[in-house]
Write a structure and sequence with these properties.
Chain lengths: 116, 86
């Protein structure tokens, strides 16, 4: 009974956090804000949901692989978010309104005008 | 309805909500962020299918899916930065 209540709490927490991540990706206005939403809420929601499922299913040979997937997602989520943020910062043109290639050409034009 | 099926349907709707940026994202990085979240949701759905049907095969598929998702995202990011592969 107590185990079921705890597992339902963690499963619903994970679903709410995944919904928050999806809503943040949908509604935020910048690439860094979207990374802020998905990098923390997505990883944390995944860990919470899989932990609830793990408590509910009990200890068997399946739970070792679930723990392995949890640890792998816990390690690779921040690495992926850092890599995407670094690539976006290198190009430094990830605004919402203007598409990617047009921003780059506009910056080049401004630099050429400054040189002239 | 079983609990795992209900969670899978909720997660499918969340994936549809998150894949808006995958199709209509203004930059390529928005598409990458959305693809990351959708891949994680697909992994959770595979684990839930494995627990529902008592087939351990789906757990191996989920594990290899996570591995290939990570490697593919890192390779794409490194290509976008202009780096060189091996």
């Amino acid at each position: 009974m107590i185990i079921e209540i705890i597992s339902l709490f963690f499963i619903s927490l994970g679903c709410v956090m995944m919904f928050t991540a999806a809503l943040g990706i949908l509604r935020f206005s910048d690439i860094y804000m979207r990374l802020h939403a998905s990098g923390k809420a997505g990883t944390g929601g995944t860990i919470a949901l899989l932990f609830g499922v793990l408590i509910r299913s009990g200890l068997s040979e399946i739970s070792g692989k679930i723990i392995l997937i949890m640890v792998f997602i816990l390690f690779t989520g921040p690495i992926t978010a850092h890599a995407i943020a670094r690539a976006a910062h290198v190009h430094s043109s990830a605004t919402d309104e203007i598409p990617f290639h047009e921003v780059k050409t506009e910056e080049k034009k401004e630099e050429q005008e400054d040189d002239n | 309805m079983n609990l795992y099926s209900a969670i899978s349907i909720i997660l499918i709707f969340i994936a549809i909500l998150a894949s808006y940026r995958l199709f209509l994202g203004p930059t390529i990085y928005d598409r990458l962020v959305s693809l990351n979240v959708v891949g994680v949701i697909v992994t959770i759905i595979l684990i839930l299918i494995s627990l529902e049907t008592d087939l351990g095969l789906y757990l191996d598929i989920a594990l290899s899916f996570v591995l290939l998702d990570f490697v593919g995202t890192i390779a794409l990011v490194k290509y976008l930065e202009g780096g060189e592969f091996i």
